Amino acid sequence: MNVSIGLGLTFVQTQSFLAMLCRFRYGTFAYYAAWVAVMTAFIAVFLPETKGVPLESMPTVWALHWYWKRFAPQEQLKRSEVRGRNEQEICYRPTEGGGTKS
């Protein structure tokens, strides 16, 4: 099902691209550039940084995020608070050896 939806949307996009190019000329590329800017802003605002965060701590990262905390289960955050860990310990754990592995 997922593949068929992806192929269907790709077909619609490729069929509409030439019609847009003939009518809008350079505006077609401005249209796609605007969508790339919107998607980049969405990623920057709504996705938390996960560099150096262990996989086991990801539910807590979602529970601490300003937007996603309303959808994340709060019991994970309560369990980490009970253990006495703060937000910086949960959200970042540096790797041994200065962050590079040889």
UniProtKB/TrEMBL annotation:
InterPro entries (UniProt xref): MFS_sugar_transport-like, MFS_trans_sf, STP/PLT_plant
UniProt GO cellular component terms: membrane
Transmembrane residue ranges: 29-48
Localization per Swiss-Prot or TrEMBL: Membrane
Molecular function via GO: carbohydrate transmembrane transporter activity
Gene3D superfamilies: MFS general substrate transporter like domains (1.20.1250.20)
Alphabetical UniProt keywords: Membrane, Transmembrane, Transmembrane helix, Transport
Pfam families (alphabetical): Sugar_tr
Family under the similarity heading: Belongs to the major facilitator superfamily. Sugar transporter (TC 2.A.1.1) family.
Identification of the protein by name: Major facilitator superfamily (MFS) profile domain-containing protein
Organism: Oryza meridionalis
